[in-house]
Fold:
Amino acid sequence: MPPLDVCTHRLASQHLVKQTLETASEVVRLFGAVQAQDYSGAKWGIGQRTIGANDATIEKEFSDGAILRTHVLRPTWHFVAPADIRWMLVLTAPRVKAAMAHYDRKLELDGPV
Structure:
């Protein structure tokens, strides 16, 4: 596939050519997780993929609990759908806990704490 076709296909598959999703939570569900270390930038990325979205409509979905911002995949922030949080935590918690063990020891955070 020519490089230009690869770029066009990638933009289309990431919903950046034509917005077909009506809510920010649909975008998050479609992608499974959205990297959200930079909160404003992450909301902007979701908004680019959503028909008629603006900061207020996206923020309302967060306030309503339709989108969660959590450390589910690694010790950085991600947006995930509430329906996906449990299975993702079961899958990723052991690795996240192992990655954070050094910091827990450094801060003297043990099991009871």
Observations:
- The chain is about 55% helix and 10% strand.
- The chain has one domain: 3-106.
- Residues 74 and 96 are 5 Å apart (CA to CA).
- Strands lie at 34-35, 68-74, 76-80.
